[in-house]
Structure formats: C-alpha cells, structure tokens
Amino acid sequence: MQVEPEKNAAMLLERLDCGVVHLDDTGKVLLVNSKAEELLHVQRGRVLGRRVDMLPLRTPLYRVLSEDSQDAPVEMSLEGTVIQVRSFGLPAGCGGGELYQLRDVTAERKERRQREEFVAMMTHDLKSPLTVIMGYIQALVGEKAKIDASLHLFLGEMDKSSAKMLSMIDDVLDAYRLEAGLLQIDRCRCDIRPLLEGCSRDGEREAAVHGSSFQSELCDEIPPLELDSKQISRVFANLIGNAVKFTPRRGTITFSSEVRDGFLRVQVADTGIGIPPEELPRIFNKYFRAQGAHGFKGTGLGLTISKAIVEAHGGSIGVESTAGKGSRFSVLLPLREEGSHLSVKVQGQETD
Ligand code: ADP
C-alpha cells in the first residue's frame, strides 16, 4: 500500500519519543505531536490555530514556548518533569515560523545528580586518609636530620605528590559544591598586596623547581578590597600553576598587577604551549582540557572554579593566547563592590 509522503511524515512525528511543536510567523500553533501533548499536558484540539501569546499565561505550552531557546537549550521543570526545550527558526520553504523540540530529561538529570553526589562523597572520604598520610610525611620532613639522606628525595616526592592529589580532590569537591550552590564566598575588607606577594613567592618556588623563570611586576598602592582572600589566592595559584605546568623548561612566567579605571587587574602570562583559537572559547567549561594538555596532569576544573570565584566578587576573567607562543590570563576585580557573604552557583555547563 502506498502512503502519501505528508501522511507518512505526520505518522513518523507521532511515533517520535520527543515532543514537537510548530508555530507560524505570527506565533499561531500549527502542529503539536502526541509526545508534546503528553509533556505539556495539553490537548492539541484546544490549541491548534490559536496564537501562543493569547493562551493563559500559566499553561505549560505558553511557559515553555515563551522561553528563548534558540541559541542554547533551556530546561524547565513542569510538575516534577524536567523538560529540555530547543527551538529552530524554519526557512520559508519548510513552512517558516519556529519549530520546538521537547525532551524529557528527568531521568538523565536524576542520574547526573546521583553520580555527582557519589563523586562528592568518594572524594570527601578520600580526603581524610590522605590528610593523615600528609601529616605523617610532614612529621618525617621535620625529622629529616634523623633520616638517611638517600631517603630525602623520596620524602620530597611523596610530599609533592600528596599535595597535588589533595588539590585535585579539592577541585572535584568544589566543582560539586559550585553546581549545588554550596561553595561559600566570605568576603571581608583586606589588603591584597601581601596576598599577591605570597602568591608570587609560591610561584617563584614552583617555577624554579620546573626550571623556568618567574617575574613579579606588582604595583604599589592598591586600595583595600572586599575579598574572600583564601578563594582569591586559590584563583591566582591556579593560574600560576597552569602557567608553570604548560610552559616548557626555561620559559618565563610573569605575574603582574595594575590599578586602572576602578579595577585591579592581575595578569599571569607565560611563554608556554598556548591554546589554539578553536579551543579558546571552551577553556572555562567544566572538565575541558585542550588537546595540548594531554600528558599533563589535571582535572579541567581549575578554570571553571576560578571563573565562578572571580565572578562572585563582581569581577571577570579572560584569556588571550597564541598556540606555541604562550598565554595571558587576566583577572579584573572591581575596587568597590557591595555584599560580603554569598554562595556561588554555576550552571552545569559541561564540555561537549
Ligand atoms: P587543568 O589544568 O587541571 O587541566 P584547568 O581548568 O585549570 O584544568 O585548565 C583547563 C585547560 O585549559 C587545561 O587543561 C589546558 O588545556 C588549558 N590551559 C589552562 N591554562 C593554560 C596555560 N597557561 N597554557 C596553555 N593551556 C592552558
């Protein structure tokens, strides 16, 4: 039996496991498939031919279709179901107007939350024994004189590796806290110059171990800032750590600051491997690691966390880079910013 192509297309749409809604250029509903009826609790007979903006404001169809979901999918919770909406403008040849695709992502989101909770629990539990091990290593370092000199090197390596492991665990835990809105930022008035000097000293040591040189170009006279100094130190330590890590031996890392136009600008520049232009826009995404980062240890979380911390201070973070030549990360912190205690939350923006 021959089925007409249009009827065939309509039958296929009915069988799809995702909702489809088509509006014409004036916002009139032209099509609602049965999955969309189910997801939006609507009977198509009641809405076909009607303009969406004339529907009662609280109807799910109105709520879902009035979101701007063209550039990136939008997620909405409707009576316990999480629906992901994505819309596409259709060319006149395909009937024009706007096509909406609706997916039920409730199970996926629940699974993701459970996975994250599991990772958070695991990393938290890994931290306690690691802290004990680090305590004993530190105790042995303190007793260096009593220990055979041939073991000093081993001890130093154990100390470095356990500190690295702890910092990676902290990154995973903080990424979870960020997602759950639990990363606390406690700001108070502080003098940032000693903080920058501390980061600079640590950076100098790190660069020396790595065989690179470190230049510090810090400005004087920075007015006191409202900061969470622990979290902001972490941002600079992460940027400096990355600069050292991604710069081959005998490179140069420059740590500088300046006050201009109501902002403190802190920059970390390196002469390292750089980041290709096509990867640059994704550099702050969760878990993103550029192709060139394979072979270097890391989680791909440091920049995501740093960005969230800086933005919680009303600031911004940016990067300029040339592949093979080096990178420059800039942090801008406003000199005046209200508010002192807040917790930060970022959307679950993952790399693709
Ligand atoms: P990690 O360093 O743990 O991989 P980050 O979130 O700190 O994670 O950085 C994400 C990615 O950004 C890195 O894996 C690397 O590809 C790139 N990147 C960051 N800083 C630099 C840098 N200074 N030079 C070159 N690439 C960098």
From TrEMBL:
It catalyses: ATP + protein L-histidine = ADP + protein N-phospho-L-histidine. The keyword S-adenosyl-L-methionine does not apply. Residues 121-337 form the Histidine kinase domain. Its EC number is 2.7.13.3. It is an enzyme of class 2 (transferase). Residues 5-71 form the PAS domain. GO terms for molecular function: phosphorelay sensor kinase activity. PROSITE patterns: HIS_KIN, PAS. Gene3D superfamilies: 1.10.287.130, Histidine kinase-like ATPase, C-terminal domain, PAS domain. Keywords: Kinase, Phosphoprotein, Transferase, Two-component regulatory system. InterPro entries: HATPase_C_sf, HATPase_dom, His_kinase_dom, HisK_dim/P_dom, HisK_dim/P_sf, PAS, PAS-like_dom_sf, Sensor_HK_Regulatory. This is histidine kinase.
